[in-house]
Amino acid sequence: MSASGYIPSFKERKNLAERIRMVEDIKRQQPDKIPIIIERYEGERYLPLLDKCKYLVPNHITVAELMQIVRRRLQLHPDQAFFLLLNEKSIVSNSMTISQLYQMEQEQDGFLYMVYASQPTFG
Amino acid sequence: MKTVAAYFDRKPIENEDEEEESQISSGNGNNSQGLVDNFKRNIGNAWNSLAYGKWRRKEDILEDCNSQIWLLGRCYLPEGQGSSYEENCPLFFQDYHSRIWLTYRRDFPPLIPTNKTTDCGWGCMIRSAQMLVAQALTILFCGRAYRRISKPNIEMLQTIIKLFEDKDEADLGLHRLMSIATSQTDEKAVGQWYSPSRSLALLRDAINNSEHHLLQNVQIYLSADNCVVTSEVEILSCGWTKAIILVVCVRLGTKKINECYKHHVKSVLSMESSIGLVGGKPKHSVYFVGFHGDYLFDLDPHFAQKYSNLDENDSKIWETFHCQKPTRMLVEEMDPSCAVGFLVKSQTEFNQLIQQLSDSGIIENQSNRALKRSKSSHEGNSLFSVIDERIPSELMLCEYETPNLADDEDELHGFEVV
After folding, report:
1. CA-to-CA distance for B355 and B366, rounded, in angstroms?
2. What residue of A is the nearest CA neighbor of B379?
3. Domain range A10-117, CATH class
4. What is the rounded CA–CA span in Å between residue B331 and residue B267?
5. Is A1's Cβ below 8 Å from some Cβ in B?
6. Could you give the angle at which helices B174-184 and B196-209 cross, rounded to 10 degrees?
7. Which of B89, B120, B124, B323 is catalytic?
8. What pLDDT score does B4 carry?
9. What CA–CA distance (Å, rounded) separates B391 from B394?
10. Consecutive 10-residue runs of chain A (123 residues): their mean pLDDT?
11. For residue B284, how many other CB atoms are within 10 A of its CB?
12. Is A81 within 8 Å of B249 when comparing Cβ atoms?
């Protein structure tokens, strides 16, 4: 990234022990919510940044709903390409709930990590 | 409500879009200014022929004579004679050569509101998207079986090519697309680089605005978030009185294409209703039309040709809209961002496409269109999903637009509650 600002990722800002503690604390307080980290893909040049990266999401909402929520937060036009990626794959299972996704894809620290990206331009 | 302009005005974070631009400044002033402009134009042309000239085009060599060659749903077998695709697989070559090839052009009428007379160095994504639409129109009006060898200059194909001519009057031409883009943004539209989704949205809008007789019964359905909604497609087709160019923008990884999608990309190109993919290498857009082994065939717009008025009806000019040398790249060189295109002309074709995509695991199918739903629906390697209805977003708004929980922030370790 340019001088305008390299933004260290959540994992770079917090060490593993801190992250594990965060998840444990929050699960005690909000047992039916899923802790998710949503960050902008480092190579993304068109979508704005989200002001927060840590989200607590009700476990019954679907992937499609989560995508709508993030799209709305970023105030995207319906034509604006927008993808949520997890482990280098686009999340396409619309009807899957966040809790199902969490079962399969949560990381060692207990968070579910996603990045969002649009499409780059070509010349 | 924000205007379209407000959304697309966001500036890229870094701007490296103009590195290869040969800008031609305003030339309406005095004579010396005119000379300077001419000089600049000549330098620009020289640069463009150097950068995008014939010598850059790779040799057309066929090494693998044993495996099938696929081109937009058609399968060909090499014959084992000669080293080029033209010699070794003439039927494939005739098919490839018959597709409409749109490239960079120079010396066309200026793109208003600028004085630019070329798209060299910036227009490749627009060209690739135009080729996808041109292919859809070719199938609709000339048939998939059309070959130049039997009917080299049929009028219908020429009418389609004229839709993409580089002049203000052409309904799907660069000039029209730039005028739509300019009207939708306060930023300059001419000379920008474009993404697959944006360039196809411009073509969709151009078709909607057009009164051309070929464009009255065709519509583009553009999905920008991995999801096709069948009820929306039905509405757009006006009860299947219109053909639908179905375009799904996808992202197959972040930096590189994820290994797990390579097979899907090839499968898509082997399907009957495929009209190819708009994508490319990073920063270098092409229109993907087929594959052979691990190589994808493309029609590459990075070739600077001189604009000539098509009304002159010179056979040499028509020749410049067909590529003589198949170009290709390895699947793994592909940029992960692309747009997958299909042409469907009826409800039956649409249902068949969904069934076929579902059977091959390319889509996550939650629609009732297909008899059989995909077995491993949560496998997670699908390119996109198909649903029958979109969840109304107002409903989600009231349900999840939670009150501000700022007071709890400390207890929640700064979590944002959704």
Report:
1. 11
2. A93
3. alpha beta
4. 12
5. yes
6. 100
7. B124
8. 47
9. 9
10. 68 94 92 94 93 91 90 92 94 88 95 96 92
11. 17
12. yes
Structure confidence at residue B8 (pLDDT): 46
A109 in helix, strand or coil? coil
Which among B95, B171, B300, B335 is annotated as catalytic? B300
- Residue B360 predicted with pLDDT over 50: yes
Contact B415 A25 (CB under 8 A): no
ipTM value: 0.92
Cβ distance A46 to B251 less than 8 Å, yes or no, reads no
A108 touching chain B per CB within 8 A: no
Structure tokens at B407: 């007071």
Contact B284 A26 (CB under 8 A): no
Q: Can you tell me the distance from the alpha carbon of B379 to that of B178, in angstroms, rounded to the nearest whole number?
A: 41
Task: Give the residue on A whose Cα is nearest the Cα of B222.
Answer: A79
Mean pLDDT over each residue of chain B, to the nearest integer: 85
Q: pLDDT value at position B298? A: 96
Over residues B303-329, the pLDDT tens digits come to 999 999 999 888 899 999 999 999 999
Min distance A4 CA to chain B CA atoms (Å): 8
Task: Return d(Cα B239, Cα B5) in angstroms, integer.
Answer: 32
8-state DSSP, A47: S
Catalytic site residue B249? no
Which residue do the tokens 């993404």 mark?
A: B195
CB pair distance less than 8 Å for B417 and A55:
yes
Spatial contact of B393 and B400, defined as CB atoms under 8 Å apart: no
Q: What is the dihedral of CA B403, B409, B411, B414, to 10 degrees?
A: 120
